Amino acid sequence: MNRNTTDPVDGVDRRSVLAAGAAGLSLSLSGCIDSVRSVVTGDGDDQLSLSIVTVPRDDNRETVQIARHLESNLQAVGIDADLTVRSRAEFLEMTLIDHDFDLYVGRHPADFDPDFLYEALHSTYADESGWQNPFGLTVRGIDRLLEEQRQADGEERETKMESLLEEIAIEKPFEPICRPTEYRVASNRFEGWGDSHLATRRGYLGLEPDDDVERLDALVTDARPSRNVNPLSATVRERGTIIDLLYDSLSTTVETEDGTVEVEPWLASDVSWESTDDEDVETTTATVTLREDCTFHETESVPAEPVTPEDVEFTYDFLEDTSYTLAANPSPSPRYRGHVSAVDEIDTEYGEDFQFRMTFDAGRAVAERALTVPILPKHVWLEEVNDRVGSIDDFSAPQGRWGIVTSSSIEPIGSGPYQFESQSERDHLTLERFDDHFTLAEDDDTLDKDVHLEPTVDEIRFTVDPGSVSSIERVASGGADLTESMLEAFSLADIPEDDEIERYDDDSWTFYHLGFNTRRMPCGDFRFRQAVAQLIDKEWVIDEVFFDEAHAKPLATPVTDEWVPEHLEWDSEDDDFVTRFLGSNGEPNVTLARDMFEDIGYRYDEAAGRLRHY
Q1: Are both 73 and 193 inside the same structural domain?
Q2: Does the keyword Transport apply (predicted)?
């Protein structure tokens, strides 16, 4: 029974399943066994096999430990589980581009607003590349709730989000495991670390360096920025810190004292909002005033050009179709897909020269998130498209794969506070201060002078250091200023008690998760996904992989705390299948687990010691 095409659950009350708990799950689903048998292919005596893919230990020790924990428990109950490790770039291509996996364990980039679930799960994106629905989920009920939460704000949106999270908990296209605390260490050569989140552009701005310091040296464990900083590629990056330094967005995120995130104008000097409700469809309109005298970076081959409303309009159109209508079929960007899909229209003829109007088919919260995409220079990207298309008669632009979104040769020209200077593969990426950035304008009365946001050092160099422990040692010895990449939990004990460095803790939007490819059986059956998810002991993961709940928190839902309804909060004592592990101390209760799989259409072969398809 492939759950990907219908809304009802073959006679099963979905909310009663959510409330039934794991112990009652087999009884409530037993009537569906015949349906399960009818869709499982094979000769009726096939061994149940699954592949799990993740990154190697050197890339992220925590993901591979979680994956091995799952592999061991699947094998213990009689499933032929096989773990494959791939480099980070290969892993992302395998899962996000090729969709060539059964299960994977990774860290989802998520976002500050739960609307990231729209692109993560809506069926519109099931065949696209990128973090757009890599699970291939196509459930109409979830589509409807994703759309409804987009239209709502305030308490109404919280109610819609609660229903959506309940449906996700049942369908389980992925299983959220835990949300890590983001740890970094920094030298005392700078003051101001931690005033803003160190995974955002603001974390690098307004710092006060010692008198003789002209360059900030940051360490990254990921070598990909040293090869490619194409802002559109799905496999180049998972976090946007470097892109946010190179490219400005109309608005930017600001973390408040209570830990929530607000969106404030950035490249826009002002954004005013209006909302209208027409036949139960909410439309939101933003009147945007763009800062005047802002320019894109200048290079030897590309002169400086002003940032105009036409560049903004081009950016949103281009992200919707990176072939810019030249291909027979649109080729959306693998990044920012959900952001730009909320935009209905951009009117550059409205108002004064640097004023325009944007209309959104969404509530204000979703519309604000749409303003955080990087603004691209039209003169660079349109010329690049035209050069690549040339005189090709039957031009096609395979989504996620065509050169405009994968190339490392496109000059990374933005208007951000830092501009590209140089890079050396597997060694470094160096950015230099853009002296014409608006944050350096002394006469700009739209900036809050009490909040220092200017680039204060001549250069920022991101140097590749593949290990958390070695990165800590380099900062402690004075060889670097910051570990830009999140430190893995095992390395925290290696942080010396030294007045020369300090540890900084930030909340994370990202979360570790188990992803299912719902395009393939048996992972196309939501009950099978539920069963597999119950073989991950999240408390064991916290204790053994992260060593302490201070370093990571177990999750039942993928959104941040303020969006989690009380009945979906993590509770280790709750028998609800949303959170329950069938076992204890990391070891599965083999009898209960086998019974659970047998109740949804499998049988245990005592002689072979394996679960098989009926």
Answers
A1: no
A2: yes
- Mark whether 366 and 407 lie in a shared domain: yes
Whether 191 shows a pLDDT value over 90: the answer reads: yes
- Tokens, residue 610: 């394996």
**Claim to verify: residue 203 and residue 157 sit in the same structural domain:** no
- Of 264, 453, 448, 295, residue with least CA distance to 377: 295
Per-position DSSP letters for 263-307, written without gaps between them: EEESSEEEEEEEEEEETTEEEEEEEEEEPTT-B----SSS---B-
The per-residue b/e assignment along 30-61, b for 16 or more CB within 10 angstroms, e otherwise, is eebbeebeeebeeeeeeebebbbbbbeeebbb
Give the span between the Cα atoms of 349 and 375, in whole angstroms. Answer: 19
Residue 259, judged by CB atoms within 10 A of its CB (0-12, 13-18, 19+), counts as exposed
Question: Same structural domain for residues 497 and 518?
Answer: no
The answer to whether residue 228 sits within a structural domain is no
Whole-prediction pTM: 0.91
Q: What CATH number should be reported for the domain holding residue 487?
A: 3.40.190
Interval 1-22 mean pLDDT: 45
Residue 194 and residue 163 share a domain: no
145-190 per-position pLDDT tens digit: 999 999 999 999 999 999 999 999 999 999 999 999 999 999 999 9
386: which DSSP letter?
H
pLDDT in the model for residue 449: 62
Distance (Å, whole) CA 548 – CA 570: 16
Give how many domains the chain has, as a whole number: 3
pLDDT mean over 386-409: 88
325, 410: one domain? yes
456-463 average pLDDT score: 97
553 within a domain of the structure (yes/no): yes
Which residue in 370, 376, 373 sits closest to 358, CA to CA? 370
Answer yes or no: do 502 and 563 share one domain: no
Mean pLDDT of 384-402: 88
- Two tokens, residue 69: 């924990």
Q: How far apart are the first and last CA of the chain?
A: 14
Q: What is the CATH number of the domain that holds 336?
A: 3.90.76.10
Which residue did the predictor score with more confidence, 204 or 16? Answer: 204
Do residues 441 and 560 both lie within one domain?
no
